[in-house]
Give the backbone structure.
Amino acid sequence: MPQASAMQKSKKVVILGHFGVGKTSLIRRFVNNQFSDQYKVTIGVHINKKVVTLSAEDSISMILWDLEGTDSLEQVRDAYLLGTHGVLFVFDVTRPSTFQQLNSDLRIVSKKIPERPLLVVGNKKDLVSEEELNKLLLDHNISHDYLTSAKTGDNVEDLFLNLATLLNNDA
Amino acid sequence: MATKMDEQAKLETLKELLFPDDRGAVEDISKRIQLLEIIINDQKKLAARVDPLVDDKLNAFTKSIPDTLGPTITATLKKEIKNHKDEVVDALYPVLGKMVKKYVAQEIKILSEKIDNQLSFITSWKRKFRSWFGGPTEEQLLMRELASATIEQVLLIERDTGILKASYSVTNSIDEEMISGMLTAIKGFVEDAFNKKNQNLELIQYELYNIHLQSFVTHYLAVVISGNYHLKSKNKLQDIIFNFYYNFMAMNLDLVFNYKKGKEKEVRTIEKELLEQELAASFRNAKI
């Protein structure tokens, strides 16, 4: 039987969140290292891919399912979530409406995709000062894993690298 | 020294006089041992003696299997089937699918031949009219109708995740893993949107290409076809797909069931290269 030279696993990652929080921009920054100020709404789903090298022996092919934004996560089609290996939940730090229901949103995610690595990401951190950001998160009692900026690229690479590591350990 | 020799000779003479029968018996045993040694050392002679005995024992053992091992085998099979329902259904699907398909295809063929006989002259006239009114020539139209479909690309995709397991391609396309994901998303959307349980999206058409999607329980195959893809081609293609999938599931089941008793099940996957060799062997020269 032929032997593969290095282990490359393929993993399905879904990116969830409300409309306009920057899900597509985060993926574009990570995959193509690009950013555009023009907002184009995602219809249905868009698929992207990037291979992340973790070590000489391990690499992960991340198949990124960029799902259209919804007001409620209950509206996300179950067919899109089948077999998901990892989740990114993105909110916009400048729009409280995208994180006011964060805890209930996360409960829905955990119900639909149980026991899978999940990272909570506050995006667009470049639009608020650090002081404002800290106050905002404290006021709303928001626990997050990453604060990112798709525009500047701040923390984007770290976010996906961490998720790739979690997926590798979860295999 | 001479005295000792004499005594030994005398003792031997005395033995011969006293135990003549025993001496004969010893010689007899010695000859039998020699014969046995010859038989044991000569494989053919030994086989001639032992084989009938082994055959008898084997026959008796085979006959007793249903009584002795039957319940254990049945219980093990039941347990394995219960634990691996998807794999078993997947393994049976191509076999049952083939049977049903052959029956339906046979019936359709009979019906189709009857209709063809009735309509063949209409088709011929339709072709003539098309060529008279500025379309392609009748020969070109005939050639087009006869042009067979060609398999351009085959993707074996995990049904839930949309992750590509193996592929075979004669043409270059964009990243196959992205195509697999997108096809899965489209398939999932259509099947979900129309809310028809156990209905699968089977065909995507665009210009000169058709994508035939053959779904099984855990995986599905997407076959990109160029050319004239009609019912006859579909039938041939499904036969090839079922044959491939049957082999694929056989490999899968070997991995699922092949683990040592009492030890934790070893999770293994079929190497991608091996799967791709299988795909290429099945689809490379396929005529549909």
Q: What stands out?
A: The longest strand of chain B covers residues 150-158. Chain B has a mean pLDDT of 80.
